[in-house]
Amino acid sequence: MVIDDHPHMRDILASFLWAGGHQFALCSDGTSALERLAREPFDLVVTDLRLPDLPGLAVVRRSKQLRPSTPVALITGADNVVPAVELVRYGIDYLLAKPFTRQQFMRVVASALAQPV
Questions:
Q1: What's the number of domains the chain is made of?
Q2: How many Cα atoms within 13 Å fall on the side-chain side of residue 103?
Q3: Do the domain assignments include residue 13?
Q4: Of the candidates 87, 88, 104, which has an alpha carbon nearest to the alpha carbon of residue 96?
Q5: How far apart are the C-alpha atoms of 83 and 68, rounded to whole Å?
Q6: Helices 102-114 and 7-19: angle between axes, nearest 10 degrees
Q7: What pLDDT shows up at residue 21?
Q8: Among 38, 36, 24, which residue's Cα sits nearest to residue 112?
Q9: How does 93-112 read in b/e, with b if 16+ C-beta sit within 10 Å?
C-alpha cells in the first residue's frame, strides 16, 4: 500500500511497483488507507510523513496496531528529519528520504517482502 497525497508521487511509486511485478493499492490520505488496512492485509505500507488529514507518524502507529507484523516505510522530505529514537518508538521499519532513486525504493520493497511474517 502506498499513501501519499501528491498524485505525481503516487504515480511514480506505482510505476516502480508495477514494473517490478507487484500488486499494490494507492491511497491519497491516511484515513482511507487505515480503513482499507483494517479490512485487508498488505505486505508493506509506504506512507509519506506529511498527509492532509493525519500526521504520517499517526498513520504508522495505527498501521502497527492494526497489522503489527506488516513492515512500514516512511517517506520524508529533506526538511523533515526523523530522529532515530522516533523510528524505533513508532515502529518504522524503513526510512526513505527524498529524493530517493527507484533502486533505493525497490531495495526497501525487496527487503520488506523478504521478512518472515
A1: 1
A2: 0
A3: no
A4: 104
A5: 21
A6: 60
A7: 96
A8: 24
A9: bbbbeeeeeeeebeebbeeb
- For residue 95, the enclosing domain spans 26-114
Number of DSSP helices (H) and strands (E) in the chain, helices first = 5, 5
Asked whether residue 78 is assigned to any structural domain, the reply reads: yes
**Residue 117 in this model has a pLDDT that exceeds 60:** no
For residue range 23-43, what is the model confidence (pLDDT) as tens digits? Answer: 999 999 999 999 999 999 999
CATH classification at residue 87: 3.40.50.2300
Q: Is residue 105 part of a domain?
A: yes
56 inside domain? yes
Q: Which of 7-11, 43-47, 83-87, 100-104 has the lowest mean pLDDT?
A: 83-87
